[in-house]
From TrEMBL:
Lineage of origin: Eukaryota, Sar, Alveolata, Perkinsozoa, Perkinsea
Span of domain Cyclin-like: 99-185
Protein family according to the UniProt entry: Belongs to the cyclin family.
InterPro entries registered for this protein in UniProt: Cyclin-like_dom, Cyclin-like_sf, Cyclin_N, Cyclin_PHO80-like
Keyword Lyase attributed: no
Pfam families named among the record's database cross-references: Cyclin_N (PF00134)
This protein's name: Cyclin-like domain-containing protein
Amino acid sequence: MGGWSSVPSPGVVYGGENRRPSGEVSKARGEKVQLACCGVAKRICQLIVETRTMGLDNHSSFFDYHEIIQPAGSASPDRWGTEESHQDPHQSLPVQIFLFLHDIVSSLGLLPECVVVSIIYCERLLRCGGIRLTVRSWESILLGSLVLACKMWDDLPVRNHAFADVLPVEFTPKVVCRCEMAVATKLCFRLWVSEEEYQLNGRL
């Protein structure tokens, strides 16, 4: 993910820029978004592999897909099938993560630095203890982190219902809010990211 060095730190370049620029600016932003999404997908996969290596892939938490999508007592327990049924078995995990993230970011015109900040929040969350990235939890953790990053660093933050509009149908506005609040609460609303921390993560 060393290529992140080409993605500007929060507020350095895009502070006053129109959300949907045209021409060369739009093309450059698209390339930076793709680069950032690729870097985040690779890092998320590394963290999931680390969880498996430690024998903790059965670790469960509030962030697990079933818990976020279908809280206890809210619907039939077999509504969503098996725990990984929402993932495409014909795609590798890195590709699934990249497409999930890139589809959101490109559809909503989010800034590339929001993508970088989202992985900083993800890793900060893991350091809080009691949370592991697994195949069941990465979507809700990444989504909650991205929503928070957008609201913290984008001059024109996207509303939660807009995220829901571009996500799979089970990610309703209520679910998006649940992901956001779960991450924010676990982080004790410690959301500031210094430029030094940003650049340090950008060199991973």
